[in-house]
Amino acid sequence: MSLIRDIVTSIVSLGKGLWVTLVNGVRPKTTIRYPWQRREVAPRYRGLLVLRRDQDGQLKCTACGACERVCPVRAISLEAEGKGKERRPLAYSVDYGRCMFCRLCVEECPFEALAMSSEHEYATYGREGLVKGIEEVGAAGRPQGMTAKELRGEQAEVAPAAASAQEGAE
Amino acid sequence: MPDASTPSPLYLTLHGLWQRTGLPEGWWLVLWAVVVAAVILAFVLLTVLILIWLERKVSGDIQSRLGPARVGGRFGVLQTAADALKLLLKEDLIPACADKPLFVIAPAIVFVPAFLVYVVVPFGPRLVAQDLDLGVLYVVAVSALPALGFLMAGWGSNNKYAVIGGMRAVAQLMTYEIPLGLAVLAVVMAVGSLSTVAIVEHQRLWHIASPPLALAFIIYFVCALAEVNRVPFDLPEAEAELVAGYHVEYSGMRWAIFFMGEYAYLFFVSAFAVTLFLGGWHGPFLPPVLWFLIKTYAVILVIMWVRWTYPRLRIDQIMRFGWKVLVPLALLNLVWAAFWFVR
Amino acid sequence: MSAPRAIPAPPPPGRRASPAGLSTEQLVINMGPQHPSTHGVLRLVLTLEGEVITDLEPDIGYLHRGMEKLAENRTYAQYLPYTDRLDYLASLNCNLGYCLAVERLAGIEVPERAQYIRVLLAELNRIASHLIWLATFGNDLGATTVFLYGMRERELMVDLFELALGARLTYAGMRIGGMPYDLPEGFEQATREAIRQMRPRLDENDRLLTGNRIFQSRTRGVGALSRADAIAYAVSGPTLRGSGLAMDIRGHDPYCIYERLDFEVPVFDEGDCFARYLVRIEEMRQSLRMVEQCLDRMPAGPVRAKLPRAFKPPAGEAYSRTEAPRGDLGVFVVSDGSANPCRVRVRAPSFANLQALGVMTRGSKIGDLVAILGSIDIVLGEIDR
After folding, report:
1. What would the mean pLDDT of C28-42 be, rounded to a whole number?
2. Does B223 have pLDDT greater than 90?
3. Cβ separation of A169 and C172 shorter than 8 Å?
4. What residues of B are in contact with residue C144 (Cβ under 8 Å)?
5. What is the ipTM of this complex?
6. Residues from chain C contacting residue A101 (CB–CB below 8 Å)
7. Nearest CA to A50 among A151, A146, A154?
């Protein structure tokens, strides 16, 4: 009778469910025991901003303001000093309370001076702590992340991909 | 105390000490009752702590995560104690316009019966608080009391969600009392006595080995899940729907008492299942108490396993299942058991 | 029935006589905006007669952030991260809808490789979105374990996104004209590995839920939406395909390179929660197929069309229609020739789907409401914008 078959399939289905949970119960767990174990983030991870330096250890940033202008939420604010080739950032602050980690600033920077590092643990006790000035953003020794060219896989100034993009684009 | 024929040596020693002091016999009975009650209460509270930890660990295992793993070492054994401390320190909130007497008494009405039923649980050959001749009847009667507590909690909270949850809880509990009683009745019929100690002593061969009692065990198991408000029958306290139902307005220690009552009752229904169907404290080599606890925890693990696997049933499905499936099945089982055992 | 039925007027409040001669009272209850299972900040005002819902009124707007107004003050490129936050569970699909609209407006042709990558990522995002749906659906019905399993499976997808794009939820993974950068080394290998692990896990989920008697009794016959009603309410996506209409924009009106891919569109006729569940489960499997095909057939080439530094599309308007995991996502962009769009209007699939909730729920019980709401799969981010 279909009633009997119904009952049997119901009981079998319930049994299958129990089997699935049992099997999962004996598998190794997926928990990562933070803070003793931490997860490695991918190389392209979008973490805190970092100002890059050139071979002489100087910040590459020329305070042109491209990043400040492109930021959709106006998280970056900077002040410049000097003129022409000597132009350098006097102040450079990023408000991580506003930043949405979209990485548009990194892509806009014409000098490869900006990158997003792998740092993502930046909790503070007050909102003021979320505004990081140039001492922190430009600090040496931080994870360097990837600049726009590195993300695009270009090493040289004009890469083949960029050249063919100019050919292939309309 | 236990068996009228053979009191335990411990009892005899202590009674002897008392008799030497020359104080009245009546006081001895009272003192003994208080001591036994205190021991059981301590056991129940300790068990509740263990069960809550176990539940979290089992659910973690099934869900591919660790569960408590920090407080009290690698296995988080002190987690429940920490939570209990936290609950004690919480603000005691009674909602405005709540029916205060109902609101305050309801947790007690839920917890106390869950603790009272332990009187007839036979932990070992002479380890039972009071071997009542009407043990099983006592259990079924006292088990009906928490329903009143749920209703009081629901109504007394002055909250629509709580009222709905309370009514659902009572409907469910009342419904599933009946097949539960009928399944237990099959065992009583097999044994010929309502005393829990007699039922265990009858089980040289576990009751579950006889087919009608195996079916009675299944019916009992399902009803036990419903009585303890566990998935798939946990609609009265479903978080996703009624945001905790009848105890939505309770916080801190009051809520903890509900919780403790539920877990105490969980241990009890498992222990009762072991008593009725799984041979009680019978078992080779190990001390009987240990066997009893092992079997009870095995049943509890299965209950937890079921909880973390299935979705929950809707209230009308629960009611339909209870009345249209379980009650007829339990009645048929009773008839079958009658034919099986009275032959 | 052939014609959509009119919504019955709600019964008058107050005491009424029930058929048994008892006088009953209606209960008006508020579900939300904070509620474990309204999937966001949705407020539902329910009128209950015992357990039965006689009237339901959704109240939205709790997540309104002025997204469409914001667009008027951002450039086209700057607005892209905002589109992530519409349907935040399927942000790449929203990115895609927006990019397609702007590219149509400005007449930009996207390189082929970029289109393949877009489709690949969009389909992976579909799987991730459906996994969250599955997780929350199971959780609402009481199977908490399914929530954890769904999130665990989603990690496979999200790790791929982190590898390629650097983020795990709101990716800003596309740009006007293509992709911001190419896929990294090792992405193809990682994706194939993820697909390989994903298939048995979907089967395991079937064993846990699909055949489960309790699950079926909670979802079969619950929340029936007739085909006519579905069409009348402009329902789209899996909700529509669960009601018997085989309408998938990827098949009907293909964009990017969907016409080159080989996939099936699952359709079920019953229109109940179970049908919608089956549609989404099968869609996940089909998306896995599509991802594999994209990996197999992806050509080499540039990943972005060259755009002028100051991008100013000509004045005009364009509308793009994409199949987001929740349905028909429409993006309407109007340009006045300046660097900022004049107007961006988003037609959110969940908005229309939510309107059908009333029809699906009348006469159901509270327990069903949770199942039905879960099966429609709404995201308040795109409803409220």
Report:
1. 77
2. yes
3. no
4. 59, 63, 308
5. 0.85
6. 167
7. A146
The Cα C239–Cα C279 span in angstroms is 8
Domain span at residue A143 reads 49-152
Residue C328 bridge partners (DSSP): C323
Instruction: Please answer yes or no on whether B314 and C368 come within 8 Å at the CB atom.
Output: yes
Contact assessment for residue C50 and residue C349, using Cβ atoms and an 8 Å cutoff: no
Q: Where are the domains of chain B?
A: 92-341
A25-63, pLDDT tens digit by residue? Answer: 888 888 888 888 888 889 999 999 999 888 888 888 898
Task: State mean pLDDT over B277-282.
Answer: 88
Strand partners of residue C331: C320, C346
For chain A, helix, strand, coil in percent to 5 are 35, 15, 50
Question: Which amino acid, residue C314?
Answer: P
Does residue A160 sit within a domain? no
Amino acid identity, position B11 = Y
- pTM of structure: 0.88
Query: Could you give the CA distance from residue C139 to residue C379 in angstroms, rounded to a whole number?
Result: 16
Q: Which residues of B touch A (CB under 8 A)?
A: 58, 60-66, 69, 305-306, 308-310
Output the domain CATH number for residue A62: 3.30.70.3270
- Residue B316 has its nearest CB partner, among C37, C51, C149, at C51
Query: Of C292, C240, C249, which Cα lies nearest the Cα of C267?
Result: C240
CATH superfamily for C67-384 is: Cytochrome-c3 Hydrogenase, chain B (1.10.645.10)
pLDDT digits (tens, 9 = 90+) for B16-41: 887 887 777 788 888 888 988 999 99
Number of structural domains, chain A?
1
**Gap from B63 CA to chain A (nearest CA, Å):** 7
Give the 3-state secondary structure of residue C347: strand
Q: How far is CA C375 from CA A100, C215, C328, in A?
A: 31, 13, 16
Within a 10 A sphere around the Cβ of B304, how many other Cβ atoms? Answer: 22
Alpha carbon B247 to its chain centroid, in Å, reads 19
